[in-house]
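To close the section, here is one more complete example, presented without commentary so you can practise reading it yourself. The ligand is glutamine.
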Amino acid sequence: HLDRIGAVDSRVHAFLHVGTESALASAQRVDAALADGAEPVSPLAGVPLALKDVFTTTDMPTTCGSRILEDWQPPYDATVTERLRAAGITILGKTNMDEFAMGSSTEHSAYGVTRNPWDTARVPGGSGGGSAAALAAHEAPLAIGTDTGGSIRQPAAFTGTVGVKPTYGGVSRYGLVACASSLDQAGPCARTVLDAALLHEVIGGHDPRDSTSIDQPVPDVVAAARQGANGDLSGLKVGVVRELGGEGYQPGVRAAHDASLRRLEKLGAELVEVSCPHFEYGMAAYYLILPSEVSSNLARFDAMRYGLRAAEGRSAEEVMANTREQGFGPEVKRRIMLGTYALSSGYYDAYYGQAQKVRTLISRDFAAAFSQVDVLVSPTTPTVPFPIGEKVDDPLAMYLNDLATIPTNLAGVAGMSVPSGLAEGLPVGLQVMAPALGEAVMYRVGAAFE
Ligand code: GLN
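Output:
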């Protein structure tokens, strides 16, 4: 895989940092233990992985795609990083991303755009475009992403790979640099559903260092993926969300989705049309809640504690202001300003408070739907991968990418994207959503479908 990275990454730019020496050392440790007759520490021992550059790593920089953290070397490992290492997984390097996970194309990275291996003139999606592109270009067989509004699932759809957003609290956020804490969730990315399940089992489960971590065992996703591989979904009810898939979705995406529904029926699933009437307000609520949390979380980048510090300034305040001016890109600044405004006194109830109410209504839509069906499905994205440059100066067009993925984050339920074929010769994905801690049935459906 290091050779493959050397051969293709100058064209794809999936990686911000390749840890050649630490990767080889880690692989050699696994080999030596096996040569000594030790049992493998996990089914994935020795398998290489690409890690999104938003997880802290003591042996590699963690930049979050931002100038403000250029060359920053964290003093501790994220829980996800720790669990990968404990399972004998080799971390090849850190992957490119939209700055602080804000974006849908990886064009908002301070370190250059990642290209979609299917067509290098197009985006791989975002914010985790680096992780998805690394999988599609066969630079790594496994990757980790984070999904706040779709950043695992949308890049998976755009690159013909599998991406899972676990239930909120299912995977520790300790050492995951925060974007919007009530929405952020780490998850597995792979080329098959079973690989994603094996990785999910490694990173999932309770962590006392994350106060929102769920104190429950990881759902048995590996057994579910194996069960699904028999291609039999009889007895399962699959809800087709009426509000996700019509207006605003490209004709090619809709045609691919219709074909996916026929395939689910052939596998034995019973299709039921369900309505989630508040999903249409998801985008509006998300773009108040997310910037509000961003404006608070990113206050820590004050030039005093981490990373960049501007040379100019006659007072601490001026140094802070100059550092943030130089260190943050335009999308991050836009959201900090939006969030600061939404949280300001006098507007708080009208904007943030109202958005939280919408969030509750969306959770109730999910609860009502899941009382009728086992899983919900929709297209993962409204469009096929778009050309680099097409939406980068049009924030609203960029935000619309996450129309179908945002509701699951707002409600904290589980979602995944599995490849569902091609539209206009480019990959598209089927989104499968399940109730909180209902990952098993989601993996079963995903594995049967792929
Ligand atoms: N694209 C969405 C956004 O820009 C989602 C980001 C994410 O999931 N990290 O906010």
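Once you have examined the tokens, check your reading against these statements. The pocket of glutamine is lined by residues 101-104, 127, 146-151, 179, 290, 402 (CB under 6 Å). The chain has 15 helices and eleven strands.
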